[in-house]
Each structure stands twice: as structure tokens, then as C-alpha cells.
Amino acid sequence: MKKEIGNHITVSKQEGETVIKIHSPLENWQEVSLLVWLGLWTVLGAGIFYYLVTGKLGSDQNIFFVVYLAFWLYFEFHGLRSFLYKKFGYELLKINNSKLLYKKNLWGTGKIRHYTLKNITRFKPVEHNQKSFSAAYSKSFWTVANERIMFDYLDTKGLLGMHLNDRDTNQLLRFLNSELKRKA
């Protein structure tokens, strides 16, 4: 059995296991913006690296640009990772009779997190402080963040449902809580 919850969530049940796939694609203008930024950022870093390697900079400038390239590489990595995840990645949840498995999947790679169902209390919406910088930043389309659903697990919190709209979040919350009651 396969069904859709909202616009970006697919649920299938197979062999006593519920599989949920959450895809949060970019809108066209967002994808183009991120791709243009990534291209310009790559060209900028390549130019700086060229001048650093060919020795066309003074010795004092070398230290500055080595540090600059370290920051450049950090943002290049995160920008590329974000673009690729938004284009080809998705969140994967597998719920069986005893466990919930969660993975941010990009081409089959990603760390699987294991949660025992009996230790999950309930799924609820994430409440962000509207005035905090971190909440505003995580809602940005270029981040791999903005989880909308959380659950208490032992003494930690689990997060899932990146960049879902309110309607999809509420539908997924109802489904997950009903699955939790049914399987626990």
C-alpha cells in the first residue's frame, strides 16, 4: 500500500514496516539562486587559490588568504551539500513493531539513527522563538535544517520533517502519533 500525505510525503507499508519518505524540494527560483551562488563562490575561491599557488601575492597576504580559503572551503562544502540534498536527497523513516529508524538520505548515504518505540513519548510540532537568529537562519531555503516535528526520546529530543509547510506537518504529526499508538 502506498499513499501520499500532503505534497512532499509518501507513506508505504511493506512486510509489517511503515516507510515514510519526506522530500523537500526547492522552488525553481530558489534552485537557480543557490546554483548561481555556488558557481560564483566556486569561481571566486578558484581565483584566490590560483593567485595563492602561483605566488602573485606578498608573504603577508598569503596568511590572510590561507585563512580566507579555509572559510571559503567551509561554505563551499555546506553550499554544495545543501544544493545536492535539496535536489536529490530526502528524509527516510522506517517504523516497525519495536524501532523507528531515521536517515537523511543522499544517494543511499547518511547516518541511520535508531530509536526504540517504547522510549518515544509522542510527536509534536517544534516551537521556534520567532525573534531568535537561529530560528530565522534555519528557515532559510539554503539550509539543511528547519525540522518541524520533534519527539522526546529518553533524555534527548529527535527532530524530523525539514522545511514542511503547516498543513503537511499537521498531517504527518497525526499519522506518526497514530502509528506510535498502534505499534507500541
Order of helices and strands: EEEHHEEEEHEEH
Domain module tally: 2
The CATH topology of the largest domain is given as PH-domain like
What is the straight-line distance between the termini? 21 Å
User: What characteristic shape results from the CA principal axes?
Assistant: elongated
Helix percent band: 40-55%
Q: Structural class per helix/strand content? A: alpha+beta
Query: What is the CATH architecture annotation of the largest domain?
Result: Roll
Q: Unreliable runs, pLDDT <50, ≥5 residues?
A: none
Number of strands: 9
Q: Measured on Cα atoms, how large is the radius of gyration?
A: 21 Å
Q: What is the residue-averaged pLDDT? A: 85
In summary, what is this structure?
This protein has helices at residues 28-54, 59-88, 133-138, 166-183; strands at residues 2-5, 9-14, 17-22, 90-95, 99-105, 112-116, 120-125, 147-153, 156-162.
Throw out a few tags for this protein:
184 residues, alpha+beta, PH-domain like, six-stranded antiparallel β-sheet, three-stranded antiparallel β-sheet, 9 strands, 44% helix, elongated
Task: Describe the structure in your own words.
The protein is of the alpha+beta class. It has 2 domains: 2-23 and 89-183, PH-domain like (Roll), CATH 2.30.29; 29-86. Helix content is 44%, strand content 29%. The protein contains 4 helices and 9 strands, in the order βββααββββαββα. A 6-stranded antiparallel β-sheet has the order 1-2-3-4-5-6. A 3-stranded antiparallel β-sheet has the order 7-8-9, with helices on one face. Strand 5 and strand 6 (112-116) form a beta hairpin. It is elongated, with a radius of gyration of 21 Å. The model has no long low-confidence stretch (mean pLDDT 85).
